[in-house]
Amino acid sequence: MRESVTELYATIEKAHGAAKRAAAVGEAASLGTARATPTTLVAELWELWGDGRALVGRAQRELLVGTALRRQEALVASAGTSELLARFFARYGSALARCGEGASLTERECAVLRVGADYRAVLGEAALVEADEAAFLLAEAARTGEVRLPSVVAADPVDAGPGMAALLRQCGCADAAGGEPFAVGGLPAETELSVLLAAGSAAAPALVLDELRRARGEGAATALVCGPDARSLYDLLAPSLVADGAGCDLRCAVPWGETLVGRAWTAVGRLGSSARPAAAATDFAYNALSGMDGAGARRLNGALRGDRLADGAAAAALLRAASPTFAVFERLQRAFSASGDAAGRTAIAADLQVLAQAVREARGLAPVERSRELASAAAVAELAEAAWSLGVPLADAGALLASRQVSVNARAAGRDGVRVEFAELDRLASLLPKSYDAVILADTTDAAFPAAQTRTALDGLARKLGLPTPADALERQRRRFRAGKDAACHHLALVVTQRTAEGEEAYPAFLLKEFAEAVADDARAAARAAGNVDEAAAWDECDEDAFGLPVLLLRGARRLGEDDLPVSVGAAFAPVAGRVSLRAVRRGRLDRLDLARFLRTADEEGRAVIVLSPSALELYVGCPYAWFLERRVGADAPDEEFGPLEKGSFAHSVLARFYDEAARRGIARLDDACAATWEPLFEATFDGVAAEQDTLEPGSGRLVALTEAEGLELARLRSQLRESLHRQARFAPSFAVRAHEHVIAAEDGVDYAGVRVNGRVDRIDVDEAAGRFAVIDYKGSAGAEYAAAMGDDAEAPPLPKRIQGLVYAQALRPTLAGLHCAGALYLAYRARTDKDMVAGAADAAVFGEEPFVGRSSVVPMNFDAYLDAVEALVTERVRRLYAGDIAPDPRFSGICSYCPAVGCERRLA
Questions:
Q1: Which GO terms describe its biological process (predicted)?
Q2: Confidence of residue 136 (pLDDT cuts 50, 70, 90)
Q3: Which among 258, 315, 363, 864 counts the fewest CB atoms within 10 Å?
Q4: Distance (Å, rounded) from C-alpha 291 to C-alpha 286?
Q5: Which pLDDT belongs to residue 342?
């Protein structure tokens, strides 16, 4: 009777494939032959001959290593440390307990061994055993005759730990590691080679699609496309392939945190830890698993961004009301962040089932996406089961979620039997020779097949302990590359990308050079054998523009440059077949809109007069296009901020209330002599306005400090206003405050330059004795652009850059009967010096000697005539408004500073 034989393969997929192939060809020798991996071999033998302990799973291992880590202080007890040590302990099993005598170890290395001892202890308490330890025990039992082992033959090189190596020796497989150095080898027999030269990464997908279509046209029914980013290739090419009738499969792994389940989970967690929860809540709302439509997500986003005081609890309440799945994610996230006791296990398990059902019912998910999300939800359930089985808190399992990789194995049906599989490069380890009609290695750069050996501190510890280290990185890459090329029956294509996605020069994999040399050597030998010396010599010529590959190897190579854009992007990956002519669009030209019909107007004797505030009029005069975007389109973000606008609104409120309260207390004018009286009043006023901010509605311009830094900014504003009041006490001593926040309504019928004025004057100061008034407009700062800038020798005044104060001054002249206007001034409450506090237009006869008013702000002419002259200049600009002119025409750079048209060709630096 033939002895039972077990063939050992690198992966279980390869083992199953070998079994199917043997059965398909009817190999008699396959009878009595089992096919397994090192892991499945140990599992089968342990189930038969083991001592009753179960083999530990990955999730259980990481949880128990985490438990052991928390019992010490020498190593950081993080999820990353737990994962790293778990792989180390899985490879070396109990061998760590039987070695290390006399080794010179560091304190950290000793700490690793102590954690390993604690891990083995908790492993024993849980009635679990490492596979490598089980293999060692089986080998020992076989040596004493207690266990009967099968004969094992290594069909693939096996990278075994010490226990597995001992077991394989007892099974008669002493050289499972591979022995001889591995060679990439040349081109397999009956296989055609194609080299696809892509100028950059954007050009590679089009070349791959073209190669797949060519292979299919030559009868290929199965094709494999392998690359480091299989998901992107699938997303780009699958629509075109499915349209051609081919079925498409995807096999890849994605980080759990990048799945919809992981992103929704993370967003819920961020709600409780973020001072501004709008981003987290919006991430959840736009997630396909939220169950919300786009309009609902936008409403929620606007509501939260417009309310700085909305905290995580408020955002969660909005999501509970709008999303049918939020409560499930919330409960699960809370359970995996807390102790997660056994009493809640039934409820948590029910929520996990609801989560999986929500994935199945989610709208708009492609089959690949649904497969990925089901695997993501299953990863959560797997960790929960592992935690429950070990009696550890669910929080320990939750900490491992971020490092989880989710396997995607999805299949999309085709109509003609042709199948194209997209897979990551790890798939190469599972391939059998001649298993696909066509194989395309979509990336042959050194980034895809790195030859550099990466070693960790744990590898150094293993060497000190005399333990077998993993196979050389270059050898592993050789095996992968060779498996990929040998898997092709008829077509092998290698994509050679010359530049990275960042535009940097790419470098070919060392294995590509080895393969090219092997192909050249085989071709030279064949040519010499045929007596063709010239052809043999021709293989020595290389193309330096193609990484030095042999010219003959590149014969027939297909090339695509990224300048061939239509062929490199899009669903069709084909040159443009036609075009549509569109009328040229001119910025600032309204072809189909009568602008005046969409503006607020007032009727004046049958004529529609446009109603504008002085600030809007100033903006239009400064640049019609900036006015259109800011005031008509409303291109502002919906966010409530703690910025200049809110600070300005707050300062206006404080100053207005302060002066009103001072007037009620009989303080007609501030001066330093009565500072002891008005300073406490200012402090109380500031405190009162600050206290009211919490009660104001979102979007009202409220100023609420939410952080320590914002609190310091608010304190700074208090000091700036206090300092400004001391300066105001010394400014224009003959004037006193008459009114604050004086309203000019459209119904009052006040016109300026052809438009109806509608606005609110910050402050009106009056010199009763001299019969004159000045308009005061508060600004945070008032630089040179606020000044009238009229020279002494000017024949006519120029149009000032800032006209808001001048508009108010002219509008108030008829209403303040008997008072002469002496100035339209801007008062900077954040000024650091006296000379920086006041700017604008001031009557030289009144303010000519005022130390706070600079020369550029003094008007050397009759001030009433000056106001009339400026209005006439503004009237010329306003005529354009009635004509619907919104063309970009900035008068100075300050207008462009905050304009949303960042790409405007008229934008001033």
A1: DNA repair
A2: very high
A3: 363
A4: 9
A5: 47
Query: In this structure, how many other beta carbons lie within 10 angstroms of the beta carbon of residue 167?
Result: 29
Q: Helix or strand or coil: residue 728? A: helix
The first and second tokens of residue 422, run together, are 């997209």
Tokens of 212: 């797949």
How far are the Cα atoms of 35, 446, 499, 513, 545 from residue 542, in angstroms, in the given order?
44, 20, 19, 11, 9
Type of residue at 454: T
Which pair of structure tokens corresponds to residue 164? Answer: 């597995």
Total domains in the fold of the chain: 4
The CA distance from 660 to 737, in Å, is 9
Q: Which two tokens stand for residue 665?
A: 């207390």
Q: Quick one: tokens of 371?
A: 């497969």
Query: Which tokens is 827 given?
Result: 């008062």
In a domain, 612, yes or no: no
Q: Is residue 595 situated within a structural domain?
A: no
Q: What is the pTM of this model?
A: 0.81
Residues 771 and 704 placed together within one structural domain of the fold: yes
Q: Rounded CA gap, 196 and 214, in Å?
A: 13
Which of 546, 568, 590 represents a domain boundary (last residue)?
A: 568
Q: What is the residue-averaged pLDDT of the chain? A: 90
Q: Which range has highest mean pLDDT (165-174, 582-591, 655-664)?
A: 655-664
Determine the residue type at 856.
S
Q: Are residues 379 and 460 in the same domain?
A: no
Does residue 512 sit in the same domain as residue 556? yes
CATH code for position 504: 3.40.50
Kindly state whether residues 295 and 240 are assigned to the same domain: no
Task: Give the DSSP letter of residue 161.
Answer: -
- Report which secondary-structure segment, H or E, holds 6: strand 5-8
Q: What is the DSSP string of 471-531?
A: PPHHHHHHHHHHHHHHTEEEEEEEEEESB-TTSPBP-B-HHHHHHHHHHHHHHHHHHHHTT
294-305 vs 278-285: helix axis angle to the nearest 10?
180
Query: Domain for residue 553, yes or no?
Result: yes
Q: Is 229 in contact with 343 (CB distance < 8 Å)?
A: no
The pLDDT of residue 623 is: 95
Same domain for 140 and 25? yes
Q: Are 860 and 790 in contact (CB under 8 A)?
A: yes
- Whether the Cβ atoms of residue 64 and residue 390 lie closer than 8 Å to each other: yes
Long-range contacts of 710-718 (CB under 8 A, 24+ apart): 710/642, 713/642, 713/647, 714/690, 717/647, 717/650, 717/651, 718/686
Q: Report the distance separating Cα 255 and Cα 403, nearest Å.
A: 7
Listing DSSP states for 85-132 in one string gives HHHHHHHHGGGGGG--TT----HHHHHHHHHHHHHHHHHHHTTEE-HH
Residues pairing with 419 in the sheet: 222, 247
Alpha carbon distance 557, 499 (integer Å): 17
Q: Which residue has the tokens 């140990």?
A: 42
Averaged pLDDT, 433-440? 96
Report the distance separating Cα 298 and Cα 889, nearest Å. 34
Q: What CA–CA distance (Å, rounded) separates 686 from 528? A: 97
Length of the chain equals 909
Residue 491: which residues within 8 A CB-CB, separation 6 or more?
Answer: 191, 192, 194, 211, 215, 218, 220, 223, 437, 438, 439
| Token pair for 480 | 């992968």
> Is 367 among the domain residues?
yes
Residues 388, 440, single domain; the answer is no
Token pair 């990466």 is found at 454
- pLDDT one-digit tens code per residue, 325-347: 999 999 999 999 875 454 588 99
Give phi and psi for 186, each to the nearest 5: -95, -155
Distance of alpha carbon 255 from the chain centroid: 14
Q: Which of 534, 552, 568 corresponds to the end of one domain?
A: 568
**Pair 287, 404 in one domain:** yes
pLDDT at 236 over 70: yes
Cα 454 to Cα 517: distance, rounded to the nearest angstrom:
26
CA separation for the pair 766, 773 (Å, rounded): 4
Residue 490 structural domain: 192-246+414-466+477-568
